[in-house]
Amino acid sequence: MPPRSRWDKTNCLPDVFHTEDRLGDNMAARLNAFQRLNRRRLPPGRGLNLRFELSAYEAENRLLIKFAATGHIVGVLQRFGCVLDAYMREFSLVAAQQWTDWREELNAEREDRVRDFREGMADENWIKTQVGDEQRQIELLTLLKHDLTEHYDKLLESEIDLVVDLYNLVVRRTGLVLGANQPAWFLAPCEILVDKKKCFLHGVDITVVYDIGGREKECCEESCLRQAACWDSLCHPNIAMLMGACHIGAKPFFVQEPTAQNRANPQSWDPILGWGLALQYLHERGFTYGGFTPDRLFVRYFNTSQGVLCGLGLEHFSKTQWFREVDEIEEEKESSVEKDVYNFGIAICSARRSLMLPGQLDQLPFECPFYLNREVWALLQGMCAQLPAFRFNMKYVVFKLKHIANFPTSDAIGEVRVDNFVVPRQERSVQYLMDHIDSLCNEIPDRAPGKDLVHCRFQEIYNQLLTLKSVRSNIMYTFCDAVDRFLEFLKLINPVQESKTLTGKQRKHIRPLTSEFAVCCAARAENEVIRSFNHEIDEILEEYNSTLNIQEEILSHSFWRQDADRVQRRLLQRFQELLTGRGCYSLNKEVDGALLQHANHQRRITHSTNNMIRSTGIYRTLDQEVDFAALPEWFIPPYNVKLSHYVVSGSFADVYRGKWLDADVVVKVIIKKEGKTDQELFVALMQEVEHWAKLNHQNVLRMFGACHIGDGFIVCEGAQDTLPDYLTKIHANKSDKLWYLYQAALGLKYLHECGFLHDDLKGNNIMVGYDRKVKLIDFGLSQQREKVEPTKVLGAYRWKAPERLEGTHPTVESDVYSFGMCIAEILSDEHPWGIYPDAAVKRAVTKMQISMPKPAQGFENELHWDLIKMMCCRNPEERISMSAVVNYLYSFRFT
Fold first, then answer.
1. pTM score, two decimals?
2. For 267, phi and psi rounded to 5 degrees?
3. What PROSITE patterns does UniProt report for this protein, alphabetically (predicted)?
4. Which of 63, 575, 595, 723 has its CA 20 to 30 A from that of 779?
């Protein structure tokens, strides 16, 4: 007779089946009894699907592996028990003792289960069968350690003792010893849920990758560990987000955000631009990408115009690529920046070809094909030049891709006069721009040495244009666009532009660091920009040489390359001088220490091999004498970030749209307040960033990095609009609103499960990203629960729980209350408490103990208002859990 299943409908309170595993039997019986009692009252679609939540756990037939998931499964059962409690309250059911003691029953099941395992451990044959071979032993030890570390607070004392005894038993039998710390990205297989070929983690869609590749003679576990460590260190808008990985078992896997294969569009170059931005970032971080095969080129799910690269197959490059001399592309054996540029050029050509013809290319055609225009063909020829030293750098490639994406056709019609041509964006004459450039070059003689040659080359072209009565308009537009951007670059590197600290709308740039070492580090980045301008001038000359007919040596390819090499050698020489002799003792401990570490470990592309070795040795010496603080993984130097335009000011930071390595981002620049020391601001910034960096969920705004030196700032992903404004813009119906609220609830539930509180929930702190997914923001003042202290009330009164208005510390329950107010705000299309002034709201909640009245609209379905009442009880202990809120919002979409 087959064993009875706990999901059998006859498993119903009070007659509970006892399965071999025991864990969850009573909860399944409780669910069956509840559904039997409320079948007519329970709307279709209610998410009471405990069987699905336990599906991955129950699919495992190895008993010790299942025991190693105890903490995770107990958490699932406890959350589900709270959900059923909420439904009992909703239906006003009088609970019998058998309903209210589910926690005691769960603990009893767990104790019985521990006794069963203790008996099994006494049987040598049982142990030998369950422990298995070395692969299973490593898997078991890893999962036991992970469960104990991540879910220690959920385990009974008897379960903790059993985990420790079992771990020691396996170690004694096998001699295997795991490392001290498990990687932060590790996921247990039971955390991944599958439904109809769709995978889920923390309630959101994911993509699971099993084909992990790897190096020759590298086992799957080693490959997974190495690649996950590389991928986990990356955070960029165009790199697919790694949500976790598992390096143990027969099938190691990676979990990333949902992506789709490139769906090419003849009218859109945005996916290719996204891949270019990602590749530029990878080179900045010291990685090469390798092959650009179609299965590694993705677009973001629900947003097919944003190209993203997979984080697999990355390789560190260990030495400089500036002065390599390789005569033929076939001789390039190792990964290199130049080889990446070449392969990316082939991938671009293949992607455009695939719109009309099948198959992939392994080299460029001999002449411009019909599916490319002249501008694109010229770019690809420069990327795929046979001599690696003559290939375009990624800075220029990204610029050209942006131009192609935004202006697909560049052939303007007609002719214009040069002497009175007005530059469109500046609304000034060309002569004015040239004079302004000349003035700025004289103001900053020591910054970006290669700028003077670029200035001279632009001036020579302009002088030739002045000799002509008129030229084709496309020549003037192309030339003036380049001159305009060169002018903006000079303004950006001019310290006079930001001679004092500005805030709000006045600020135009991140204030540059002024130490000599900081200027030297910035100059190396500026040299990349100078090279891209020289590439652009080359292309202008090649495209319009028949019109311009310029022969001066200063405009030749070889002339500027020789000058660029001289500049690069001088920069490297100055860099060494600053790190040797007396110069090294003048370095600033915090500022120069951070830049030095960044230069050593994350900008390998700009160092020669000898200088890398020398500076690394010097750093070790300096670290002993100066005691540099370790550089955070999230550090971004100021010279990699540009501000575009001001958005809003908060109490903590001014918010701007900006560029980080040419990618569109949001930049939060920390406000320096009177009465606040730099050390206090530094502590506040570090607290926000350290908390934020730990979060990894699609419904929580992503942080890409930050800078804690100079003008502190945080770089994060952009968003379209606040949730209330977005819903108004799309004319959302009730079902749309509930779907977006469900996503916000998933994000808040994730924060709570990670041990964080939000404490400033309101409609304006819930955003909608460009991927049309909800993002929680402004949780910078959030604190880990175990460290929280009573604080003064921050934020708007209307959304605050009564106990917070009375001055108590924030809790999970106060977040539930505030989110209930957010639901009321979204469904009613008005702020909580309507037209009541803030003072009246505070008095009504704290003194008169009045609950918010039901809004006049938005709650035609009484179940929706019942949810608000359960979330916003005056007594925090009576409020329902976030798991129950998620369950309710999911089910409301079907009612």
1. 0.84
2. -90, -10
3. PROTEIN_KINASE_DOM, PROTEIN_KINASE_ST
4. 595
Q: How many CB atoms lie within 10 A of CB 583?
A: 14
In this prediction, residue 90 carries a pLDDT of 72
Residue (of 850, 889, 893, 894) closest to 867 by Cα position: 889
Query: Which backbone phi and psi does 546 adopt, to 5 degrees?
Result: -65, -30
Structure tokens at 796: 């708007």
Residue type, 603: R
- Pairwise CA distance, residues 203 & 199, whole Å: 9
Structure tokens at 651: 């109490």
Buried b (16+ CB within 10 A) or exposed e, 518-550: bbbbbbbbbbbbbbbbbbbbbbbbebbeeebeb
Whether 278 and 662 have beta carbons less than 8 Å apart is answered as no
Query: What CATH architecture is 193-406?
Result: Orthogonal Bundle (1.10)
Distance CA 60, CA 295 (A): 30
SS3 string of 325-374? CCCCHHHCCCCCHHHHHHHHHHHHHHHHHCCCCCCCCCCCCCCCCCCCCH
Neighbours of 466 (CB within 10 A): 12
DSSP assignments along 724-739, one per residue: HHHHHHTT--HHHHHH
Amino acid at 742: Y
Average pLDDT over residues 428-434: 87
Type of residue found at 781: L
- Please compute, for residue 833, the number of CA atoms within 13 A of its CA located in the half-sphere on the CB side: 19
For residues 164 and 168, give the distance between their C-alpha atoms in angstroms, rounded to a whole number: 6
| Strand, helix or coil for residue 858 | coil
Give which of 89, 30, 174, 49 is closest to 879, Cα–Cα.
89
List Cβ<8 Å contacts ≥24 apart for 582-587: 584/618, 584/621, 584/622, 586/516, 587/515, 587/517, 587/622, 587/626
* Neighbouring C-alpha atoms within 13 Å toward the C-beta of 630: 3
Q: How far apart are CA 468 and CA 473, in angstroms?
A: 13
Q: Which two tokens stand for residue 744?
A: 């916000």
Neighbours of 170 (CB within 10 A): 21
> Rounded to whole angstroms, how far apart are CA atoms 176 and 356?
56
d(Cα 270, Cα 289) in Å, to the nearest integer?
A: 19
Interval 275-319: pLDDT, tens? 999 999 999 888 999 778 877 888 887 666 789 999 988 988 754
71 in Cβ contact with 150 (< 8 Å): yes
Are both 193-406 and 721-892 of the same fold? yes
Per the document, the length of the chain is 895
Mean of pLDDT values over 880-885:
92
Interstrand relation of 297-300 and 303-309 (parallel, antiparallel or unpaired)? antiparallel
Sequence-distant (≥ 6) Cβ neighbours of residue 507 within 8 angstroms? 498, 643, 646, 654, 656, 669
pLDDT, position 683:
77
The domain made up of 638-716 has a fold known as Phosphorylase Kinase; domain 1 (3.30.200)
Q: How many angstroms separate the first and last alpha carbons of the chain?
A: 42
pLDDT at 38 over 50: yes
**721-892: in CATH 1.10.510.10:** yes
Sequential DSSP letters for 141-196? HHHHHHHHHHSGGGS-HHHHHHHHHHHHHHHHHH-----SS--TTB--GGG-EEET
For 43-72, what is each residue's pLDDT tens digit? 545 567 899 999 999 999 999 999 999 999
Angle at 423 between CA 418 and CA 427, to 5 degrees: 125
| Nearest in space to 393 (alpha carbons), one of 341, 347, 321, 343 | 341
Q: CA-to-CA distance for 445 and 182, rounded, in angstroms?
A: 51
Which residue blocks in 285-333 are alpha helix, DSSP H? none
Positions marked active-site: 760
